[in-house]
Write a structure and sequence with these properties.
By secondary structure, the chain is mainly alpha-helical. 78% of the residues lie in helices and 0% in strands. The protein has helices spanning 2-30, 35-38, 45-56, 62-73, 92-127, 132-146, 149-170, 175-192, 197-221.
Length: 223
Amino acid sequence: MFAYILRRLGALVVILFGSSFLLYNLSAISTDPLGDLRTSTAENKEYLILALTRELRLDLPPPLRYFIWLRGVLGIFTGNPDFGLTREQEPVIEAIAGAIPTTIRLVAVATIVAIVLGIALGITSALRQYSRFDYGMTFFAFLLFSLPIFWVAVLLKQYLAIDFNDFLVTAKISPPWIIFLSALVGLFWATIISGTRRRVLMVFSGVFIANSIFLSFISATQW
């Protein structure tokens, strides 16, 4: 058992090293810290470029800079960690410390919501086995399992955080979005309602029309 734990920890270290090395070099290759200074009209532009190059050691290749950065990170074991500076010239470790409470709250809320929804939907699907709701939830679960979590997170951040905040200010909804959201809500209720095909179509049509009218009213009046 002890040997198994050591093997797992060794694999974790290798994966952490490889992923950090890859991300560091991809970030270094795809970005240009001197981009703003190259287009600057300041008289001391060349001096500023040389100073920033010396400070960030941009004259060294990215792989070598990674190991210099890694040496500072490993200083955490000696009580003197150095994660570098942010774009605002603030220590990265202070930014991490400030983000930890928010991260803990986010993870805690997400875990609680996932447990509550998972249990509720799982029990409902078990009670209504082989129903439209069961098939719909199964498809939705497999869909989310198959999607990369980082890609889903980016979409949620963009559309449920940034764009939704903009929507709260303007409250304008384009016609394609009205149709899409109305169809999505109608499809959700159609999967829950059991009965004949005619009844399901009537529920879908009613919810689709009602939701379209509601969203159109919100968009027209801007709340």
